[in-house]
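Case study.
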Amino acid sequence: MFNTTKHKKALKNYSLTLFIFVLFASFICINISGGLMLSRWKTDLTSDSRYTLSKNSEQIISEIKSPLYIRIYLSSTISKDYPALYQYSQNVLRRLESYKNISPEKITIEIRDPEPYSTTAEEAQKLGLKSFLSRDGQSELFFGAILGNDNGDTHVIEQFSPVRAGYLESDISRAINKLNNPLRTKIGIITGDLPVSAHRYGEGVQNEWGFFRLLSHEYNLVKLSPLTAEIPYDIEAVIVIPSQKTSFLLAYALDQYLLRGGRVLLLVDPYSEEKRLSLGASNNIDKLLKSWGASVNFSNVIGNINIGEKRITQNRGGEISYTNPLWLNLTPKNINTSISFNKNISTINLRSAGNILLNKQERIKATPVFYTTQNSGTIETADLGLIDENELMQKFQKDNKTYNLSILLEGKADSAFTQNPLQNTGLEQDMLPFLPTSIKDGKLLLIADTDFLTDTAWINEDISGSGNTYDIVSYAQNGEFVLRALDYLTDAVNLSSIGSKQLNTDNLSVSQKIYQKKLQPYKAEYEQNKKHLAEKEELNKVWNEIVQNNETAVNMSMLKKIEQNKQEINNLKENLKKTEYHVRKETLQTIDIITWINVFIIPITLLLFLWIYNFLRTKRKQNKVREFINEYKIS
Amino acid sequence: MLQNFKTIFYKDFAAFFRSGNAYIILGIYAILSFASAFYFGGYFILDNSSLISFFHFQPDILMILLPAVTMRSWADEYRLGTIEYLLTQPVSYGTAVCAKYCATFLFGMLTLTLSLPLWIISSFFIELDNINILSSYIGCILITGCFCALGCAISAFNKNTVIAYIITIFVLWGVYSLNLDFLLTSTQQFSDEVFAKVIRSLNFSKHYQDVVSGQIGLDNIIYFFSLIFPALWINIVVLEYKKK
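After joint prediction, the assembly is written out as follows.
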């Protein structure tokens, strides 16, 4: 009897253990099969569809011919030293995983940890990855990637930076596209009077403009002479910024190039703020544009009150803020987002742009790219150099018209010339024959502003580096627009449609937001001081150069001026530091208050509410019971 | 059946507040959650559009606090001798288990609601990714469901609440740290090989991270439910086993 009970108990224990084991085994089997079959299918629950790749990126991935490997160099100590960067690294890895999910057989991802002084760190350095110092300054950290394929082609992303989070998909897809098509497209560039490429001035070196850096990274940029009479046949598109007086030869070259199906990005400007003169206002350019059904009004500059940039200036009464109607901060309302290369473009900054007039032509399709809306007006170009900020609004004439600031012209046109201007010189023999009309559809993107290419119009120079493309931190999408417009012109449809997801400015942490709010009351003064400091430092640099080079006789009054300037620089620096210290102190105080409210006051208040609610509920119940007992007693 | 379910559910849920333990657990949860987000989670320095500083520590906090809720669900019935009374009532084991599980799960959800003020306060400072936050809450609800189911099952094995609490924490810690990624090489971590997928499909933390980062998939949902249902089933079987 005893044995039977013991046996039964053992059997029960055995069955229970077996049952739990079977359940555990089925848990493993279900999840393994779930992982194998379903792990690739995910729903993107983020408001900006962070993990969803665009159709164009998918297309680029489908075009991968030889297996692609992505090797990520990610220092493990980043998690300790730079938590924000580590957080971003996890985003990057997830995004790369979504690339891999589209074509798992073609893409291999590998992560390497370049520990300080290791061979991996050396390898990362050799490959051209950008390093940064650990918090203790003792070792170099990396977070970049190298993409390569079996053909031996490689592309290096020097560094992934959270400030370029919005451009992550664009950066990766472009890198993959480069490996798919290792031969870089040739783009001609004629920059006229603007110093867009790196050059020396005096003792210093002027860095190349951001847009130029961006384009050189993506394309094979070929500089062409402004006196060229023929655009080489292997150039897929030309960027032209005409000089003050454009030669008829260049106009002829562009005319014939377009008639042969060429693609031109032409930037003209009634008033270049950079050069303080009009660019492209010549009969030759006018003739060319007329044949394409367009013309630019060089006598007026377009403004708009609604989208004018808010500026700060100083007058006798102190600092005043005003709206500069000529510095246009275009919003989606002013951008034709139905054009593929304008998808997701939401901020473009233009400065004293002109108006493009259209004269409809049958064979040409004209599409407005940028335009103004309500509260637009004009100001005469001739007045611009003469008036100050105070007179600007007085001279501005509001007319509420809609002005085209950029137009895309596509189709066939007749030549603006009747014959080759070099006819009968003997030189025409080396040139392609004159075409009186188009033999192929050409594309002409006309923009009535050149200042939008300057770095100050779109790059956050405080945090942008000057070395490579992945350093550029922008607050407007001017650079992205030019790049994608060129992609469109060169028929790289997939690239032209990959838009950025968001601009870095929204990506601030709570403390940065609080800091900005606290800085607001002092901002005008702070920005002004910063501006003055930059000016005075520049002046100091120039004077020092003069003193060192003995370019002029250095006298006592000049030395006094230098000394005074240095004193002012020190004062300004001190003022800036004081403001920063004050704002930081206020920020820390607010942070402390928020922490206390959340950690102590809110939990206690919530619990108190809950307790009171429960107490009242119990009391009510007790009363009901009491009433019931009383009723029972009475009855 | 529904009436029986309601009776047990109300009895258990009200018991949390009657004893006063609920206030202590809720208070500790709120303080721990906010303190971890503010002091250790880098709430002020990270990009917190999805409140990552808060959600990062939730599994750890819930792992410590939810066993304190579940430990009493069956162990107390054994200890007070009310189990016999309960199981001799016209109520099926399944109904009793579900009612007790729902009571603890609802309490778990109540603890999560204490974090809502952080969502509201944060929206004053930064632009929040509300869809991602919602997804993170789904992640928290799923792990609450798992932890409650496992906690109830373990409580059914024990008569002593303290032992039930300790064993539950130990088991939850084991499930949470079920991470065999160390078996993979760096290439395999991201490769599509079967072995890598198998290893990663069992990783609790990875499934939670997927949901919290806004990449929710059917495999994640299946993983959490494949923990909840067997745990409830074990709970029923254990009751039957103990009765016999």
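Observations recorded in class. Chain B has 13 helices and one strand. Residues 130-157 of chain B form the longest helix (28 residues). We will return to this complex in the next lecture.
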